[in-house]
Design a protein that fits this description.
10 helices, five-stranded antiparallel β-sheet, 14 strands, 361 residues, Transferase(Phosphotransferase), domain 1, alpha+beta
Length: 361
């Protein structure tokens, strides 16, 4: 039962619905007919949606059912109350630790898709939903591609199907005020490029083989943007973004960023131009992010324990002195001095962010 329209995108319209048989709300996505107007394209979309339906992860919006209807395709999906990652991380009340937890959730969602042989190819903040429970889920695999599978070619040699959605591509071009670059294949025909330029990997920009490492690069851009408020490769046009990606110079974090500077090194590795120079997989990058945060939390806990011990000693010294204010003041002064020294040492341990990764080509 359809309740109301809740959104519309390049792939189709999304409605809030209700599954009477299972007594649950669902999101119904109706794919535009013009995108599935050829039997093999329709068959491919159904096949890929079925693969998503078999994917069960708490960090991916669950696809319950897929089918064909009125010459189109519908997907019944998990209904999640929340907002997309971009809207969520713009909330000034959200601290960097909370941000990082949500980003790691999204990374785990991508890792689950990769384990199932699926590549997202358009990972960005808008394709991550943060629920009211604080858990992030990856959604909108509209450009998803099975690993090892290439774009479908139409009879005239142009690329078609969900990974070559011309409307999505042109919407992106309008946003960047630049025509899309055309990447040649082995034959003298032109190929459309799938993805959002600001989040695309070098291999997506320049026609290389797309795989899990491409999603990792897009994930690293999203992490950088969420933590530092800007993207590493900014540009007013697609070509300007392309050139910055080609050069591979990664700007260091803003000097006033509250984010520990050692986290930059984790993100920096994910943004390397060559896929083999990045983290071996999303799971490894997520583990590195969590390890750094875990080590920071351990240091903070130890510091807090030492502060509490010093305070206890100060209280004990004051009591032994029979209420001597001078003894109490000296003890508390010692505790404060040691606490300040410890905090300064921890700050120095973070170190500098280092030089930008990747040399200019």
């Amino acid at each position: 039962m359809v309740l109301r329209k809740i959104g519309e995108g390049s792939m189709g319209v999304v409605y809030a619905g209700y599954d009477v048989a299972l007594d649950r709300k669902v999101a119904l996505k109706l794919v535009q007919r013009k995108l599935v107007n050829k039997p093999r394209i329709r068959a491919r979309m159904v096949r890929e949606a079925q693969a998503l339906a078999r994917l069960s992860s708490p960090y991916v919006v669950q696809v319950y059912q897929v089918g064909e209807h009125a010459d189109g395709i519908y997907l019944a999906m998990e209904y999640v109350e929340g907002e997309d990652l971009r809207a969520w991380f713009r909330d000034p009340k959200i601290g960097w630790r909370q941000l990082l937890r949500a980003l790691c959730d999204a990374g785990r969602g991508l890792a689950a898709a990769h384990a199932a042989g699926l590549i997202h190819r358009d990972f960005k903040p808008e394709n991550v939903l943060v629920g009211r429970d604080g858990r992030a889920r990856v959604l909108d695999f509209g450009l998803v591609l099975s690993e090892g599978e290439d774009d479908l070619e139409d009879d005239d040699g142009s690329m078609v199907g969900p990974v070559a959605d011309a409307k999505a591509l042109m919407a992106t071009m309008e946003a960047t005020e630049s025509p899309p670059p055309e990447v040649t294949t082995r034959r003298p025909r032109m190929r459309r490029v799938a993805g959002t330029p600001a989040y695309m990997s070098p291999e997506q920009h320049f026609g290389g083989a797309v795989g899990p490492a491409s999603d990792l690069f897009s994930f690293a851009i999203t992490v950088y943007e969420a933590l530092y408020g800007v993207r590493p490769f900014e540009g007013s046009s697609w070509r300007e973004i392309q050139e910055k990606v080609r050069r591979g110079v990664i700007p260091p974090p803003p000097p006033d960023s509250p984010v520990p500077r050692w986290l930059f090194r984790v993100v920096q590795r994910g943004l390397q131009r060559a896929p083999e120079d990045r983290w071996p997989d999303i799971e490894a990058m997520v583990a590195a992010l969590e390890k750094e945060v875990g080590e920071l939390q351990d240091r903070l806990r130890k510091l807090e324990d030492e502060v509490n011990k010093l305070r206890d000693r100060a209280k004990g010294a004051a009591k032994d002195a029979g209420g001597d204010g001078e003894a109490k003041g000296d003890a508390e002064g010692d505790a404060k001095a040691q606490t300040d020294a410890k905090a300064q040492a921890d700050a120095r341990e973070g170190g500098d962010a280092g030089t930008p990764g990747g040399a200019e080509g």
